[in-house]
Each structure stands twice: as C-alpha cells, then as structure tokens.
Specification:
Number of strands: 20
Largest sheet: 8 strands, parallel
Radius of gyration: 26 Å
Distance between the termini: 34 Å
Shape: elongated
Structural class: alpha/beta
Bound molecules: 2'-monophosphoadenosine-5'-diphosphate
C-alpha cells in the first residue's frame, strides 16, 4: 500500500553506505516522501551518482555539508564545490548551496536551488541582513538554520519567513526548535525538514519524518491553522502533542499542537513574546504550573485552591487558568468505583483516602479528595513535605514508615515509584491491598505498574494513570475547542504509544 504523499516535508537521508541510502530513499518514498535530501557528506566512499539516482522514486536534493555547518565532509573545499557542480548537472532535482558559495555555483537547467545558511552556535545579530542578501542569490528556496538560545528565537526566525521576497525556510536547531520547524509552514515556508532515520544524529533537534507526518500532520498546516501547545521543561518527549494532535486530526480541526520548551523562570516573558502568535491555549507542565496560576488574569476555583494550573486559555488580552488534573482525578475515581450498596452512584464523601507523595500531582489529588468530602491522609518519603501539604489541605500527615497501618477505602499513588525504568518497584507492600480497596496510580509509563498488577490480582478496583492522563487531556480539549473528546480514542492513541515497542527512555515519556 502506498502512503499519502507528503508535499511539505523534505526527508533527510544520511548514511555512510550507498546501499543504505538507496534503501532509505526507497522506503521514504513508499511512506509518502516527495522530496528527499541526500546528505552526500555522510557517505564513506565517493558518491556514485549512477547508483544513487537509479530508479529515483521522487525528487532528490544533493547536499554536501561542511563540519562548521553541521556536516561531515572530510575532503577539500575545492573537491566539495566540484561535487556540487557535478550534482547540478548530474541528475539531481535540487542542490543545496551555502550562501558563501551560491554565487560561484550557478543555476543550470531546471535544477532547483536551496541557498542555505547555518549557524551551529547562535542566532547572529545580523540575521535579517544575512537573509536579505540570500534572497538576492537566485534561490528557489532560502534556508536558514540557527542555534536557538531562548524560546523567543523561534519568533525571530519565523518573522523572516512571513514576509520573505523569496520562499524561506528558517528554523532553530536544538531542543528549543520545534515551534519554528512546524509553524514555519503556517507562515509560508514551502516545506520543513524531517529525518528518515532520527537515530542517525543528522542535525540537532531534527524531528523524524514519521513524527511530522503522523503526529503533527504538517501537510494540513495552512495560514489559518490555529496554534495550541504545551509549555514545560523538559518537554521534547511529552505525550501531550501526540494525544491533542490526534484529537484535532480525528475531528478534522485546522489546528496544531506544538511543544514549547520554556526554561524555569521564563514563562512570563515567553507568554508576552508569543502573544504575536495568538496561541489559543496552552497545556502547562513542570516546572511552570505554579507560575501559570500566578500569571493568569482569571483562575478557576481548582487553581485558586491548589495554586497550580495545568491549562491556560486565551481570554481577551490575557489568560484564564484551569487545573484539569484536579477534575480528572475525581472523575477517574468516580468512574471506576463500584456503586453504593443500594445501587446509588459512587461518592467520595466520607471515604478514607491515603495519598502517597507530596509533589505537584499529590497536591491536586489531595485537594480534590478533600473538597469532595473524603478524609485524606498524606504520606511521603520526606515527612516535612507531607506535613506542609497536609496543613495546606487541612488533613492528616502520616509517617512514611507507618503508611501500611492506615485503614482506608482509597489509595492513590502520586509518587514516581514504579515508573519506567524502575518497573519492579512499588510504593506499598502487597499485603496492604485488600479486596474492594480502590487503588489509583498516577504513573502511566507503564500503564500496568507493579502496584496496579498486584492490586488487580488481589481483587481491588484499579484506576490507571492512563485513565487520569486521558481525562485531564480531554478536559483541556473541551476548554480549547468547546467540544467533547473521545476518551476511548485518546486511550487507544496513548496505549499504542506506550506499548513496549514504543517505549524508549524514562525522560522521553514525561508529560
Ligand atoms: P510531581 O510534581 O509529578 O508529583 P515531584 O514533585 O517530583 O513530582 O514528586 C515526586 C514524588 O514522588 C515526591 O512525593 C517524592 O518524594 P520526596 O518528596 O521524598 O522526594 C516521591 N518519590 C520519588 N521517588 C521515591 C521513592 N523512591 N520512594 C518514595 N517516594 C518517592
């Protein structure tokens, strides 16, 4: 089966062996690539154009990058320029020439030219001047790739794209880069770059072709696409883009959800600078939840109570703050608890709950349970944190060593114990898990933690972290779009991403 074509992604192939380059070109084309950049500087042997261009399944671009520009070319500059000239006449459809050699390597026939500029260290002060000069260098496409130092650098490069006299692709490299790589398409970039094989370390922050095509659906981005995103640090491997973009796509909304890495302490500046984008709504994660609550112009009751927000929604010139973790915790519990003895809907009122942990997640859960009328006990490895949270909520702190002696109806694990890769750990001895106990784990990597497995085995009612994650995301979707999200669909998307074959590193799975 041939995949739908990707007209807006230039797929980068960089391998040392011709055989692998050929194989990747073929496979990328089968998956929908229409333009592939062949990084000739990666080849261990002299490029054999006959082999590379034989049975070309789509347009190919030749690039021979020097080390200062992020490439691996090991030969002389004269030999490199000769190779570029050969590529121009040798059957490639596109050739990438750096701005400093663009005037000496001329256009030929119908071969298209990318005139490129790379700066692996910074965003130079004269970037706009450099761009202006490049636009006069007979380019079909001007490309600027610079190393971002701060989130606002994304804005600076996108401004170049917007009013460019020559079609321009300008993006940041590094871990701050995703907004510019994706949003450039909204502002007029003809395409963006994606690695066929992200493990090859082709360029810092270069996303994979599959990610751009199947998570961000970049082929559907137009000038009218609405922007949403998640703000956090780290954020690169957040699962929120996966789940929100899947919902946007399934409901045929012209919207994209982007990860914004914003270092601690920079939230206020970020929100101000990115106002120009008119971002409709943000998910907020570590370490900005408290600051988001402070900076908002309006706070929902759950935010006032927990002093933390995980959602910001544009409201006139500012933002309204919500805490969908809070509501999701209650909904997850109620949806999975058995009905009362008389068949009445379950309630949390007067139930005894034991919350393990005293971090941000425990804070939302403990406040929510308390508000619902439950009698809450908090136990944490560091007792002072448990004490502080218990005082804040108005409930009881229990010594970590004494946690097994609490008689309760509901247990919620808000510690990170049991999270990938420490999947053999559990925060409680299994003898604590009695039939009928409600056990909720907020850890969702893996979904079936040891605690969940043991609880299930001992006849408890279990609520997994996937349930809570999906519900908080669904509540955000409702705030963003005003429509209900399908919990079932979100669960399926998340479970597919969390399946053992997709599991990578622990830091890659944070929300
Ligand atoms: P979050 O905001 O996601 O809740 P956090 O603030 O880092 O993240 O909280 C992590 C929680 O897991 C804390 O309650 C932490 O206990 P400490 O306050 O003692 O650090 C708890 N935690 C992490 N590792 C733990 C372990 N090995 N045993 C027990 N508790 C652990």
């Amino acid at each position: 089966m041939t995949a739908s074509p990707s007209e807006r992604i230039c797929v980068v192939v960089g391998r040392t062996r011709h055989k692998m380059v050929q194989a990747e070109i073929k496979e990328a084309a089968r998956r929908g690539a229409r333009l592939i950049e062949v990084r000739l500087d990666f080849l261990a042997k002299a490029p054999d154009f006959k082999r590379l261009l034989a049975d070309k399944p789509c347009a190919l671009m030749a690039t021979v990058r020097r080390p200062p520009d992020g490439g691996r070319w090991g030969g002389t500059e004269a030999a490199r320029q000769t190779l570029l000239r050969q590529a121009v006449v040798g059957g490639f459809d596109w050739v990438d020439v750096e701005t400093d050699v663009a005037d000496v390597i001329r256009r030929f026939g119908r071969v298209k030219r990318v005139v490129s500029y790379h700066n692996m260290h910074e965003v130079p002060g004269n970037l706009e001047k450099i761009h202006e000069r490049m636009c006069a260098q007979d380019a079909d496409v001007v490309k600027l790739a610079v190393r971002a130092q701060q989130p606002e650098d994304n804005l600076r490069v996108l401004r170049l794209v917007k009013d460019a006299p020559t079609p321009t692709i300008a993006f940041c490299m590094g871990d701050l880069s995703m907004p510019s790589r994706i949003l450039g398409l909204k502002y007029g970039s003809p395409f963006t770059y994606g690695a066929f094989n992200p493990e090859r370390g082709i360029a810092p922050g270069l996303p994979s072709f599959d990610e751009l095509k199947h998570i961000y659906h970049v082929d559907s981005i137009t000038a009218d696409t609405q922007i949403y995103g998640v703000i956090g640090d780290p954020v690169a491997h957040s699962l929120s883009p996966l789940i929100h973009n899947a919902m946007f796509h399934s409901q045929r909304l012209n919207a994209v959800y982007v990860p914004f890495r914003v270092p601690r302490g920079q939230l206020e500046g970020f929100l101000k600078h990115f106002d120009a984008f008119g971002v409709r709504g943000y998910s907020v994660t570590i370490p900005h939840k408290e600051q988001a609550a402070v900076l908002a112009d309006m706070r929902e009751a759950s935010v006032t109570l927990t002093q933390a927000a995980n959602t910001l929604l544009r409201l006139g010139g500012g933002f309204a703050a919500y805490n969908t973790d809070y509501t999701a915790a209650i909904q997850s519990l109620l949806a999975n608890m058995p009905p009362g003895a008389d068949g009445a809907p379950p309630t949390l009122s007067s139930r005894v709950a034991l919350v393990l942990g005293a971090g941000g997640a425990a804070r939302a859960v403990a406040h929510a349970l308390h508000r619902e009328g439950a009698m809450v006990n908090i136990s944490n490895r560091t007792p002072e944190r448990a004490q502080r949270l218990a005082e804040e909520v108005g409930c009881r702190a229990i010594d970590w060593a004494a946690r097994h002696s609490v008689l309760c109806d509901i247990l919620v694990n808000c510690t990170s114990v049991g999270m990938h890769p420490n999947v053999d750990e559990t925060p409680l001895h299994h003898s604590f898990l009695k039939p009928g106990l409600v056990v909720m784990d907020i850890v969702y990597t893996p979904e079936t933690t040891l605690l969940i497995r043991e609880a299930r085995g001992r006849g408890c009612h279990v609520v997994t972290g996937v349930d809570m994650f999906v519900r908080q995301a669904a509540a955000q979707f409702k705030l963003f779009i005003g429509r209900e999200a399908s919990l079932e669909y979100m669960r399926t998307v998340l479970r597919r991403a969390l399946s053992p074959v997709s599991l990578k590193g622990p830091e890659e799975l944070r929300k």
